[in-house]
Amino acid sequence: MGNISNLPIPFLVLSFITILCALYVVTSKNPVHSVLALILTFFSISAHYVLLNAQFLAIVNLMVYAGAIMVLFLFVLMLLNLSKDSEPVKSNLWGVAAAISAGLLLVIITASFQKTGIAIMQGNAPEIGLVKNLGRVLMTEYLVPFELSGILFIAAMVGAVLLGKRDGATVQEIMDLNNDANNA
Amino acid sequence: MLNIFQSLEISHYIYLSCVLFCIGLFGVLFRRNAIILLMCIELMLNAVNLLFAAFSEYMGDKDANGQMFVFFIMVVAAAEAAVGLAILVMVYRNTRKTDVSFLDSLKD
């Protein structure tokens, strides 16, 4: 394990922001604040990707996670009107148990990685993470997983629509119900 | 870009990813709101993604195999979020709650 004082400043700052925002996601009472902190976490992880020569991954991470998935979460939060503190307070015992479990896992994993040694990163060629190279690899070596992930997406989309649809009632019937309720 | 890694070791990324993963695990164990639970799972997946990218850089792989794995994890995460949120909306419609501790009727 290396000395922490001679680490590069960008890595230290980014790691600090990442861990701080991740902690806020978990501990915040307000779900909307959690979503916003998670978006900040994804931004700092994208900055880590840029440091790691994965430029296209950084952009995709921003677009898919911060752009699409988190907006979906925020939309569901607003739709269900959960932005207030609706969560019942848990006993402290539960939190202590969860913290001990997660802390034990952290100790076990880090202890098992203790012997990985002082291997300096070799470093990729800077153009390895650009869309030209990644597209070539995706369309040649990983063509079958790429097509399979398309099928997975269609299955997930059909499943989501099927789950979200209200049984039996069409939109017109729901609107009629609402009109009846307003007239009554 | 390379001189930034003169003093950076793979173990630092391993520790960072482990801390992120365990924060996500703590959230899954501690929180009861189902939306926060899904967000903590996204956090754990992102810790793994970061480690994949770091090992891709560490090994110096010419074919970017580690970065391709990050793509496929992102695909699975997006599908999981969509289906999970659809289930969540349906549960809320039926029970008016998103608290996972009430969803224990299979236990009886």
Structural Rg of chain B: 18 Å
Q: State the share of residues found in helices of chain B, binned by percent.
A: over 70%
Strand content of chain B: under 5%
The count of helical stretches of chain A stands at 7
Q: Quickly give the CATH architecture of chain B.
A: Orthogonal Bundle
Which percent bin holds the helix content of chain A? over 70%
How would the global form of chain A be characterised? extended
User: What is the residue-averaged pLDDT of chain B?
Assistant: 86
Number of helices of chain B: 3
Strand pairing plus helix content of chain B: what structural class?
mainly alpha
Total E-strand runs of chain A: 0
Runs of chain B in which pLDDT lies below 50 for 5 or more consecutive residues are: none
Q: Give the N-to-C terminal Cα separation of chain B.
A: 59 Å
Could you name the CATH class of chain B?
Mainly Alpha
Tell me the structural class of chain A: mainly alpha
Main β sheet profile of chain B: none
Low-confidence segments of chain A: none
* Overall pLDDT confidence of chain A: 83
Oligomer: heterodimer
What string, H for helix and E for strand, traces the elements of chain B in order?
HHH
How many discrete structural domains of chain B?
1
